[in-house]
């Protein structure tokens, strides 16, 4: 290698040295500086997005706290201390779903229900109410769509938590 370098003319050596320096600068730019610039840009966009989310969260925090206080103060439906069957009957009646209940059968610590021609949204709201306020949970659920839009038939098992 030394013999090859010594055999080059001074002009050729200068060209090779300048080329090596230029190549080193280009590699430093591509391998170091450019990734740093891209990372900086990505971090700036993340900061902007997260700042917007923080502003939104501050705006809705009061509403969330107010709703949480209302849910804590809301009285449980009558019969909350009774049996699961009583809870189901009373809450279904209060939710306007009593007519959809075709069968209520005790099973273990809970009850198995069959409902026909019930609105899906009303059913999900009722089940959420049972879970949040009455301490029941849905351990089995099978839903089949009906011909009417939004209407379903359901078979489910409700148990105490």
Structure explained in plain terms:
The protein has 161 residues and is an alpha+beta fold. The protein has four helices and four strands, in the order αααββαββ. It has helices spanning 2-6, 10-73, 84-95, 120-133; strands spanning 101-107, 110-119, 136-145, 151-160. The protein has a four-stranded antiparallel β-sheet, with helices on one face. A hairpin with a 2-residue loop joins strand 1 (101-107) and strand 2 (110-119). The longest helix is centred in the first third of the chain and has 64 residues, at 10-73. It is elongated and about 100 Å long. Belongs to the GSP M family.
For the record, give the distance between the C-alpha atoms at the N and C termini, rounded to a whole number: 81 Å
Count every beta strand, where a strand is a DSSP E run of 2 or more residues: 4
Radius of gyration: 35 Å
Provide a count of the helices.
Answer: 4
Look at the structure and give the mean pLDDT.
88
Q: Work out the helicity level.
A: 55-70%
Report the β-strand fraction as a percent range: 15-25%
**Helix and strand pattern:** HHHEEHEE
What class would the helix/strand composition place it in?
alpha+beta
Main sheet specs = 4 strands, antiparallel
What sort of overall outline do the alpha carbons produce when their principal axes are compared? elongated
The largest beta-sheet arranges its strands as 1-2-4-3
Family: Belongs to the GSP M family.
Organism: Halopseudomonas aestusnigri
Main location: membrane
Keywords: Cell inner membrane, Cell membrane, Membrane, Protein transport, Transmembrane, Transmembrane helix, Transport
């Amino acid at each position: 290698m030394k013999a090859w370098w010594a055999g080059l003319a001074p002009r050729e050596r200068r060209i090779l040295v300048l080329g090596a320096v230029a190549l080193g600068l280009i590699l430093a730019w591509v391998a170091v500086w450019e990734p740093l610039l891209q990372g900086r840009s990505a971090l700036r966009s993340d900061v902007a997005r997260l700042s917007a989310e923080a502003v939104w969260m501050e705006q809705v925090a009061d509403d969330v706290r107010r709703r949480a206080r209302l849910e804590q103060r809301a009285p449980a439906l009558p019969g909350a201390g009774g049996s699961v069957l009583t809870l189901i009957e009373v809450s279904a009646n209060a939710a306007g779903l009593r007519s959809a209940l075709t069968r209520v059968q005790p099973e273990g610590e809970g009850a198995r229900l069959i409902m026909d021609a019930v609105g899906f949204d009303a059913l999900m709201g009722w089940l959420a109410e049972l879970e949040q306020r009455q301490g029941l949970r849905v351990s089995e659920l099978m839903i089949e769509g009906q011909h009417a839009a939004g209407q379903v038939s359901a078979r489910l098992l409700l148990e105490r938590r």
